Amino acid sequence: MAGEDLYEQLRQIMNKGVFVKLPKHAAVYEMLKGIFSEEEAKLLTVFERPNQPLTLSAIAQLSGLPEEKAARLLDDMVYKGKLLKVGDFYALLPFVPGLFEVYFTHDRDDPERMTKAAKAYRELFYSGHPFELSAGRHPIYRVIPAVEPVKKTIEISKTLGLERQVMPYEVLEEYLSKANLFAVVPCSCRNAAKYAGEPCKRTEENFCVAVGLLAKSVIEQGVGRQVSFEELMEIMRRAEKEGLVHETINIQETAASY
After folding, report:
1. Which of 33, 161, 183, 191 measures 20 to 30 Å from 117, CA to CA?
2. DSSP alpha helix (H) spans, the chain
């Protein structure tokens, strides 16, 4: 299998069980071709869906490749942010949130490939794909609000004590304090925009951070810089001063990235 048939198969696999799907679109094929060589794409078709954990031996057996060759391909993809590895297990990433952020945050692939992928994604972006992120009853991302992160049901006619307003920064501080490890990482959106020839002009600084297990992973891979909680909050203060909002994955527990 070669050409678009191969990348169509990979697209279908990446769409299984995920909310934000990659559409059947010429820009998607161009983007996947930019990120994955045919050899890499063919190897990844052994996965049935994103986030399915497979060992090296299982992947080698399913692909028919010698373990040594499979290991070289897999570990190179992990290094470049194309594939996830946790312990002895490899996993295919969903496109977003997932592959897009990890690939452009790592920024380790051939610049020509990254440029091709970024320009193709830009075309997909302008076609309206980002609206998928906020579609439905439960959007993928949410902005840290100026009230408690999770609203509780309030009894009608009940008097509310509003003596002190909780500001966004204070909510963010409480939210992030639940984690125990923090890292600053390059902004995937800024990197993608740079490669697409439309660099971000809103700010000159990266304000993306990772916490918990994701922070541990990016620190170990040399992608993120470990920071203390105090330093992290100072970075968040600077972000607010530049007019940026704090956005995270739409879950109640402290998410892994912002």
Report:
1. 183
2. 4-15, 26-35, 38-44, 56-63, 67-79, 100-106, 111-126, 168-176, 188-195, 212-220, 229-241
CA atoms within 13 A on the CB side of 96: 22
Predicted model pTM: 0.80
d(CA 189, CA 208): 10
The CATH number, out of the four listed (3.30.365.10, 1.10.10.10, 3.90.950.10, 3.40.50.300), of the domain defined by the range 4-134: 1.10.10.10
pLDDT tens digits, one per residue of 199-232 = 998 888 888 888 888 898 899 999 999 999 999 9
Quick one: tokens of 61?
């057996």
The first and second tokens of residue 257, run together, are 């990235």
Closest CA to 256 of 215, 195, 199, 196: 215
